[in-house]
């Protein structure tokens, strides 16, 4: 499911238990029908005291499913109870940060605006949703 609008975004998380939060977000996104098969863990070599690779970030294929990605990431961030920050980065270097403390208590109208803000960052300059 790729086309000329396909973009692979990097997703990083700042949290007390970063790896557990990355795995939680990966699992959350995998439950979204439109995103199944479009999310993968990116691993880095382990530090000397750890056995096996460590999940470093996620890679999400977006394009025709950009709205589903934006809405799902915002919903996941809002569900977090601790200090969690998600950073999305496009291949062109465009970055966006979503902080759980900021979005947790948003009104429905503000949640919609946040999803729009994330969607615009995902789509990048000059790209329009269908």
Topology:
Layout: E1 7-14, H1 18-30, E2 39-44, E3 54-62, H2 66-79, E4 85-89, E5 95-99, H3 100-103, H4 108-123
Antiparallel strand pairs: 1-3, 1-4, 2-3, 4-5
Question: Low-confidence segments, ≥5 residues, pLDDT <50?
Answer: none
- Cα radius of gyration in angstroms: 15 Å
Main sheet strand line-up: 2-3-1-4-5
Number of domains: 1
Query: What overall form do the CA principal axes indicate?
Result: globular
Would you count the extended β strands for me? Answer: 5
Q: Count up the helices.
A: 4
H-E order = EHEEHEEHH
Sheet with the most strands?
5 strands, antiparallel
Query: What value does the average pLDDT take?
Result: 87
Strand content: 25-35%
Instruction: Label the structural class.
Output: alpha+beta
> How far apart, in Å, are the first and last alpha carbons?
16 Å
Summarize the amount of helix as a percent range. 25-40%
Brief sketch in words of this structure:
With 130 residues, the chain is an alpha+beta fold.
Key traits:
130 residues, alpha+beta, 36% helix, globular, YbaB/EbfC DNA-binding family protein, EACC1
């Amino acid at each position: 499911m790729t086309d000329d609008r396909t973009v692979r975004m990097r997703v990083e998380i700042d949290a007390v238990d970063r790896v557990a939060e990355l795995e939680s977000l990966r699992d959350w996104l995998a439950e979204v029908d439109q995103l199944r098969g479009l999310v993968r863990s990116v691993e880095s070599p382990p530090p000397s005291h750890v056995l096996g690779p460590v999940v470093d970030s996620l890679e999400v294929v977006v394009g025709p499913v950009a709205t589903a990605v934006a809405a799902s990431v915002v919903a996941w961030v809002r569900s977090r109870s601790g200090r969690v920050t998600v950073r999305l980065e496009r291949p062109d270097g465009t970055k966006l940060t979503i902080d759980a403390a900021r979005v947790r208590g948003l009104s429905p109208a503000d949640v919609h605006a946040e999803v729009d803000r994330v969607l615009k960052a995902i789509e990048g300059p000059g790209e329009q949703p269908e």
